[in-house]
Amino acid sequence: MSYQTHPALKDPLYAAIRKIAFSKEPEAAHDWAFNWFSKPWVSSLLSKRYAAAGNPSATTVAGLSFPNRIGLAAGLDKNGDYINALGALGFGFIEVGTVTPKPQAGNDKPRMFRLTEHGALINRMGFNNLGVDHLVKNAEQRQWQGVLGINIGKNAATPLENAHDDYVNCLERVYPVADYVTVNISSPNTKDLRQLQHGDALAALLDAVMTTHTKLATQHGANKPLFVKIAPDMSDDDITQFIQVANQYPISGVIVSNTTARRDLVEGHPLAMEAGGLSGEVMRDFANERLQSVQSKAPNNWALIGAGGVSSGDDAKTKLTLGADLVQIYTGFIYHGPRLIQRSIEQTR
Ligand SMILES: Cc1cc2nc3c(=O)[nH]c(=O)nc-3n(C[C@H](O)[C@H](O)[C@H](O)COP(=O)(O)O)c2cc1C
Question: Residue 287: which domain range?
Fold first, then answer.
């Protein structure tokens, strides 16, 4: 398969930016691009250029009012450093994080790889972040008015049996500044994290988190939605069992999905065997299948956020057709730029 920009997304400005960015090592490119995007004059120009056509289309999901259905997936802005700049690109919601209680460096570099021919990335970042206090400060100071989700995780040094302490700690810290919170138990890059998606470990985690959530809702007079983000590498049976356990707690819904451990989707690529999670266009059909499976089994009152492989406005629309209420994008944004956000908003009204 050869990677190509969809004709509706052709954009000479972004093509020029991408050319420079892709000449750099992926993490250096990220820092370089956001250094520019976050300058107020650049942000203001981009905001005008990439405004979606037509009237805004507010929608209510999980009790929150979203200006549109297209959001940024977690991991691009781990520390909440770029909320205003990303907001200016039109996203209806932005999910920052994954954040952990203490700052941590993450895995050794290099840890992000572009498989350009496939419109894909492999990453094994390992929750590199500056810690929850840094993120909370940024969230408090944001000017952007859209919906802010905060995605929480555990420090690598915290043993799995104490994971709930880290999630509870983060939930308490972020609750006052988040519009919603995501419990991320599906990163492939923190050892054994995905075990929290199953059975007793899931029940113990949700028990601790939801007890704290109830306390915080009373304390702050606001019942903020809590989502759980799952991996696509779950069988139908895994999904059935996950839902049985999770449905015993008042979560608001699920994000389907995180990156995949599958490699057959990029077989033969020189970087295919790099460790980490695979994302982007190649995982689209797989993520859609998992979304459909969750949709067919989940209780009606759960909201579903579809993520994985969105690379065109049509892809965003397909997620809604399959039962998602909202859509998140990461890798497609790197390959196609803000035009993808604009088109996705326009096609999901
Ligand atoms: C470089 C990179 C870092 C990521 N970091 C996180 C993270 O910290 N937390 C998380 O929940 N998901 C993380 N993700 C997963 C994305 O949020 C998203 O679920 C996944 O990439 C599928 O969507 P996409 O195909 O649009 O990228 C990361 C993805 C990438 C590519």
Answer: 7-347
